[in-house]
Amino acid sequence: MSKGISKVAYKPVGVLMGIAAGAIASTIFRQVWKMTAGDGDAPNATDEDRRWGEVLAAAALHGAIFAVVRAAVDRGGAVGVRRLTGRWPD
């Protein structure tokens, strides 16, 4: 399989994996937030009743979890493509 075809074939797979990564990361974040904050819902940035520190901590935690899950899903997808096609996707 040529390099261009491998890249084209991987693109829709990458999009679907990105959507899945977002859903997985959100689920993990909600569980981690419940365990650490003891509160069922993480604060929104516009929630008037929440403090700055709580809002920023929630955003930082959510971003970190999303980045780790996304990297793991992307890497796993690339490894899978190489196993199927013999080429690393670009």
Question: How are the SSEs placed, and which strands pair?
Answer:
Blueprint: H1 3-37, H2 52-85
Helix pairs in contact: 1-2
Transmembrane segments: 12-32, 52-73
Pfam families: DUF4235
Organism: Micromonospora radicis
Structural class of the helices, strands and pairings?
mainly alpha
> What is the H-and-E element order?
HH
List unreliable stretches of 5+ residues: none
Q: What is the terminal-to-terminal distance?
A: 13 Å
How many beta strands in the DSSP annotation? 0
What value does the average pLDDT take? 87
**What portion of the residues fall into strands of 2 or more residues?**
under 5%
Work out the radius of gyration.
Answer: 18 Å
Separate helix tally: 2
In one word, what is the shape? elongated
- Give the helix proportion (percent range): over 70%
Give a short account of the largest sheet.
none
